[in-house]
UniProtKB/TrEMBL annotation:
Protein species of origin: Pedobacter cryoconitis
GO MF assignments: proton-transporting ATP synthase activity, rotational mechanism
KW Transport (keyword) present: yes
UniProt function note: This protein is part of the stalk that links CF(0) to CF(1). It either transmits conformational changes from CF(0) to CF(1) or is implicated in proton conduction.
UniProt name for this protein: ATP synthase subunit delta
Keyword line: ATP synthesis, Cell membrane, CF(1), Hydrogen ion transport, Ion transport, Membrane, Transport
UniProt entry tagged with the keyword Cell membrane: yes
Amino acid sequence: MSENKAASRYAKSLIDLSTEQNALEEMKIDMVLIEQVIDQNSELEAILQNPVITLDKKYSILEGIFGKSIHAITKAYLKLLVNKGRAAILFDTTKAFIRQYNTIKGIVTAEVLSATALTDANKAEIIAVVKREIGANEVIIKEKISEKLIGGFILKVGDKQFDASISGSLNKLKKELAQGVV
């Protein structure tokens, strides 16, 4: 079983358990916290990946970091994951959990690459369009700025992309002209 499949299955089990226990929102908060801590701390990720470090030591490190700030179900989940020798997939599991949670709640992420920072009006318009076209309940905008675009923006939602950038239009025109000349 690949690591991503295992992470996805562990995440699904945690979602099912937390839904059954009416603790889904708390689990989401915990998973976001754990994901952020591991993402920002390469040493912690290396410890979780290292097969030489004992399972007890890995769990005590996680307990020391998260012990008082996480739900009891999350603590039990961390203990289970570590005791099964699956601490290496904890980061992937948190990402899978968040992805599955967002799917259940109808939350989509819209990645916007723009030449300049988006105004609040731009963001509101993008959110309205994405909600209407995708049927999402909530839209999270992740904004990146790239001066290479010259102007406009590129919007990605899932596997769909809309290019309204000047550089994209110039490239398209360049291709059309090259095909017409040949």
